[in-house]
């Protein structure tokens, strides 16, 4: 884990600035993207957040095979970061419904997509999730589009959808975050990824073994990009298709930290979580 140290001079300057400025302002004032209440150990391992949400079915569009949008029903706190969630090989959008419900109810607009065919490989899935993001931010119905802050975008995906997510992160350095759930891909290198990226592997995954896929992908991403690797103890490949509290905590905290700039969630990322659900955890510590 990379640790950043401030010099004594910088610390003295910061202290002096604090004394002159007086008490710090509330985080909500300092961060215009903060949404929802302060997180707790219970809230980040819950299946739902505090926002009421609605859904809208999306028909097949140019570039992707439709899906479902999950979005908060109010913008009293402002518009929301936007996430596209992509399933894996032979999977439909329903396997990412747990993630969409979790994330939308914590203050994001999320679209789960169907791929053009369930047999599409990661590169095709990457193209489709990017097409979905473009449609969502520019052509979706007004009731959805009015909720979106198009400047704050992220991707998540499972298995080949996870591979597609990593390919999209490489292709779109303007993304705020990416999360690959048990990602599978071949013939790729992610050493040019600049997007803050979390990879979640599974200890007992026979389809995308962590030692063959998730860990090498993690090592390829530069530390300067910010990255994290979580390996879920005892889990198999399909842990990314259902709610798991260990996975949910890390994914939600990562997206909150980088899409919403919400430093209240750093406590769940660094220092590393070490409960029974975690087999291994590595990261660069959020900066």
Structural key phrases:
nine-stranded mixed beta sheet; disordered N terminus; alpha/beta; globular; 287 residues; Rossmann fold
Summarize the structure.
The protein is an alpha/beta fold.
Topology:
Elements: H1 8-21, H2 27-30, E1 53-58, E2 67-72, E3 80-86, H3 97-104, E4 108-113, H4 122-138, H5 142-145, E5 148-158, H6 160-171, E6 177-181, E7 197-202, H7 214-220, E8 227-232, H8 245-259, E9 278-283
Parallel strand pairs: 3-4, 3-5, 5-6, 6-7, 7-8
Antiparallel strand pairs: 1-2, 2-4, 8-9
Tally of individual helices: 8
Structural class: alpha/beta
- How big a fraction of the residues is strand? 15-25%
H/E topology pattern: HHEEEHEHHEHEEHEHE
**Helical content, roughly?**
25-40%
> Ranges with pLDDT <50 over ≥5 residues?
1-28
CATH topology: Rossmann fold
C-alpha geometry? globular
Describe the structure.
The protein has 287 residues and is of the alpha/beta class. It has one domain: Alpha/Beta hydrolase fold, catalytic domain (Rossmann fold), CATH 3.40.50. 28% of the residues lie in helices and 21% in strands. It has helices at residues 8-21, 27-30, 97-104, 122-138, 142-145, 160-171, 214-220, 245-259, and strands spanning 53-58, 67-72, 80-86, 108-113, 148-158, 177-181, 197-202, 227-232, 278-283. A nine-stranded mixed β-sheet has the order 1-2-4-3-5-6-7-8-9, with helices on both faces. α4 (122-138) crosses α6 (160-171). It is globular, with a radius of gyration of 18 Å. Mean pLDDT is 91; it is low at 1-28.
